[in-house]
Amino acid sequence: MKRMLKICASFAAIAAATASMPTAAFADWLETAAAPLKGTEISGIFLDRPGYRAIIKLLPEFEKKTGIKVNYEIVPYENTREKQVLNFTSQGDLTMALVDLVWIGEFAESGWIDPIENFSKDASITDPNLKLDGFFPLLLNAFGTWGGTTYGLPFDNYSGLLFYNSCQLKDAGFDKPPATWEELKDVYAPKLTDASKKQYAFALQSLRGETQSADSFMRFLWPFGGSLLNKEFKSNLMSKESQAGLNFRQDLMKYMPPGIVSYDHAEAVNALAQGQVSMITEWSAFYGTLVDPSTSKLGDCLGVAPEPAGPAGRLPALGGFSLAVAAQASEAQKKATWLFIQWATSEEIAKPYVEAGGVSGRMAVYNDPDIKAKYKFVEPMVASWQAGVPEFRPRFPAWPAISEVIAEWGTKMMLGEVTVEGGSKEIGTRTEEILGKEGYYDGKKALLQ
C-alpha cells in the first residue's frame, strides 16, 4: 500500500496567500474579525483527554476577545463518530467537526465538512499569520486533507511513544530503554516480569473497539513490514511480514497483565503510573497524566523514548484529529467556527496550550528552549513526526466498518479463541467483502487519497 503524503495545490495556494498579508493592518486581527460576529454561538464535541482539557482552560481568553460563545459536550471517543454522524445527517446543531484521522474520508465525501479554502480566501476572517506550512507536514496531510483538498487544521495530535519506568529498568540492570521490539520482548521483558508479585513488563491497550483495531492490532503490522492491505487493496494479513507482527504481539502477551484485552488507554497509563508495569507504548498526549503527582507515582522515574523499531524500521503509531467547519452551520456560525479553529491551532497559543497539557501540531513551539527543557516527550515525538505512515490506519470512508471486524477478530486472537492465521483470514475475507460492496474493486471509488 503506497504512502499518501500528498501536498495539495490548495495548501500551497493558501500558504502563499496568507504569507503575503500585511501584519501591520492586523495588529489584533481576531478582535477585528470577530466584531460582526459578537454573540454568535458555536458548538462542537471534545474528548475527556488532556488536549481538550487544555483548550478548555484557555477558552475564556477566546470568548472574551471575540464575544463568541463556544459550547461543547465532552463525549467518550467510542461514541464520538456516531454522535457526529447522527447530528450531521439530521441537520443538527454542531458547527464544528472533530475529525479523527480515519474519519476524514467519510466526513469529506459525505459533504459534512467544508474545505478551509471557503474561508481562508476571505482576508477579513483569516489570520494573516495562519502559516499552514508551520504545521508538521505529516500531520496536516494525514489529519486535514482528503483528495487534494484541505478540510481541517491539526488539533490534539499524537505520536506513539515508549513511556517507561527508568527506576525499574535500572533495578533490572538496564541503563536505557529497548531500541527494538525484539529487544523489548526477548531481553527486557523476562527480567521485568514477576507474575507472583503482579508485576509485568508491558501493557498494550487492547480494549475491543478502535483501541483494539488501531492501538493494538495495527501497531504490530507496520514495524514488521506488514500492512492491512496491499497495493491492490486486497488483504495483506497473510503475508509473512504481517503474520510475523501479529504472532509477535501474541508472544508478547505473556509479559502483560492478565485481562489486557480489557485495557483502554486509561488502564494502560494507570498501570505504568502506579508501578504495575514497566513500559507502555502510548500517545504523547498522556505525558501530562504521567507527570502529574496526583495521578502518577513515577516522579523522576518517568522515561520517554521513541517507539521501538521493528524489522522494517521505526514506524510508530500515528493518531489525532483535525478541527473542521461543519457544512450544516449558518454562515455566521461558519465564520465564527473558522475563527475558533484558527485560534485553537495557532502558533500564538501553541506554548500556553502545551503548558496546559495539550500537544500542538505546530513545529515552532518545539524549538522553544523552555518547552524542550521542561517536557521529556518533545524530542522523541518531534523525531517521529519527521516521517511516518499517514495511513497508519486507513483513512477511507469504509474504515469504521473494517475497524469493527478487526476489533472482533483481533480480540479473539489475543484471547486464544482463534489462531493468528485463522483470525487473519477472517479479517481479510470480511474486509474485502466490505470494500467490494463499497465499490473499491469496480472503479467506482479511487483506491487511495
UniProtKB/TrEMBL annotation:
Transmembrane segments: none
GO CC annotations, alphabetized: periplasmic space
Pfam families registered for this protein in UniProt: SBP_bac_1
Signal sequence range: 1-27
Main location: periplasm
InterPro entries: Bact_solute-bd_prot1, SBP
Key words, A-Z: Periplasm, Signal, Transport
Location relative to the cell: Periplasm
Homology family: Belongs to the bacterial solute-binding protein 1 family.
The name this protein goes by in its record: Sugar ABC transporter substrate-binding protein
